[in-house]
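Quick start: load a record and inspect it. Here is Bifunctional non-homologous end joining protein LigD:
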Amino acid sequence: MSRDFLKKYNKKRNFGITAEPKGKARKRAKINLRFVIQLHEANRIHYDFRLEWHGVMKSWAVTKGPSYDPADKRLAVRTEDHTMDYNDFEGVIPDHQYGAGPVMIWDKGTWMPEDDPDKMDKEGRITFTIEGSRMKGLWHLIRMRTTDKRENWLLIKSKDNFALNKTENAGFLKRENTSIVTGRTIDDIRKAGPGKTPSV
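Running the structure step on this input writes:
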């Protein structure tokens, strides 16, 4: 069953051209579930938010990036599941390939679901605690009711000790604009050319 999770991921990519890892599910973990956020400059810049689940990374494209202000409701479009090996991918997807453009590892760490993830996904409200270098505290993913073909969700910060008001949150993403792995900016990664960064 787990192999089916990555069917769409593998179908969209030519691994003879792109350095992205070929899809392969891992054994399902119960603790120390991982997350990663990758800043991705494709047709438009966005933040790929990924949560480990069923041995793959469940993924959402957050168009404006995460916000620590609970008043912000950030659109998060559900995308295809990714292989867990993608957590270490930083580099440039070549032109004419799906998602062509630079990819930065913006944050990574662990996450803890408040309840059974499958149950929450079915109900359309995923509540979780996250522990990363930049993302911390309690967050929510809430599925929107829409006639859009896309599966649209909202990423919202919970009101906890990590939450910020609008003024405090202003400029957060502009300040935090480098890779937590290599310290590079998205421009640095683009200039390095197609392929995965050897040091990642």
